[in-house]
Structures are given as C-alpha cells and as structure tokens.
UniProtKB/TrEMBL annotation:
It comes from the Bacteria. Gene3D superfamilies: Alpha-ketoglutarate-dependent dioxygenase AlkB-like. This is Fe2OG dioxygenase domain-containing protein. Residues 54-151 form the Fe2OG dioxygenase domain. It holds the Pfam family 2OG-FeII_Oxy_2. SUPFAM superfamilies: Clavaminate synthase-like (SSF51197). The lineage of its organism: Bacteria, Pseudomonadati, Pseudomonadota, Gammaproteobacteria, Alteromonadales.
C-alpha cells in the first residue's frame, strides 16, 4: 500500500475475488478481480441465501500469525453504495475484532471463532470503525472472507 508517498507491505496477505470487471479501490490500491474459485462460489451462494443478499465480490484476508492485523477503518468505499451489507466469515485462529463509534467512546471486542459469520449492515460503516489488532498471544493463521456487493 501507499503510505505517506511510500510503498509499504500491508501486515497481512490479501486477495480479491469478484465477478468480471469489478475492481476494488481502497487506500490508493486497485485490486483487479481474480476469477471465483469453486469453494468461494459455494460459500458465496450459501452466504447470499442466509443474508438474502447479492454479494458479487469477496476480499480475502490472511493473517499469517498474531503479528498480522488490520487497522481502524470503515468499509465505506463509494463502490459499495450507501449502508452496505458486509458478511464476514472467519476460519482458523480465533482473533479479537474491535468496533468503535466514530464519535469516540469505548470500543467493544468480539472474539471471532472459526466458522463464525459476522454481518455488518445499516449505518455500521457510516458511524463505526472496526479493526483486527495484533495479538499479544501467539496465534496461528486466520483467514477471513468479507463478502461485499459492488454496485455497478
Ligand atoms: O479480518 C477481519 O475480521 C476484518 C477484515 C476487514 O475489516 C476488511 O477486510 O475490511
Ligand atoms: Fe473492514
């Protein structure tokens, strides 16, 4: 990613799978879509049914160990539209997920276990930020899939 004019490594691995021609732009990066893998299509279909959604893309994050993380942010990119629905599936190591209101106050912590589905909707991106901090305890790999709908 580009930070203060420098190209630096993000503290995790990332891949973007989406229907053809749906790129994703954030933090001045453009992720070109990788064609769907059968297992991701299967998960997408199940999550679409469960959430009554039309997810057409998934951002895959791989946290290699406890030192990998994602900083405070909202998933509020314009291509997601207003009040986006985001469904987050976790696999592997249990990690803490944090949520806080943009106006301040305490953050809350959710322990995301393997196989769990976290759904963020309504104004959760407009009013809140979330993060996955580094862990002080050693952790094995965690893979997180955030299903999104890119509006055309
Ligand atoms: O790994 C997680 O649980 C969160 C990932 C996330 O916030 C994102 O990809 O936008
Ligand atoms: Fe996010």
């Amino acid at each position: 990613m580009l930070m203060f004019g420098r190209v630096i490594d993000i503290p995790r691995l990332q891949a973007w799978y989406a229907d053809a021609e749906l790129s994703y732009r954030y933090s001045k990066m453009t992720l070109a879509p990788t064609p769907w893998l059968p297992v991701l299509t299967e998960l997408r279909n199940r999550v679409n049914t469960f959430c009554q959604a039309q997810f057409n893309a998934v951002l895959v994050n791989c946290y290699r160990d406890h030192k990998d993380s994602v900083g405070w942010h909202s998933d509020d990119e314009v291509e997601l539209g207003k009040n986006p629905l985001i469904a987050s599936l976790s696999f592997g190591a249990t990690r803490d997920f944090q949520l806080k209101h943009k106006n301040g106050g305490e953050s809350i912590k959710l322990s995301l276990q393997s196989g769990s589905l976290l759904v963020m909707g309504d104004k959760s991106q407009e009013y809140y930020q979330h993060a996955l901090p580094k862990s002080r305890i050693e952790k094995s790999m965690r893979i997180n899939l955030t299903f999104r709908e890119i509006k055309k």
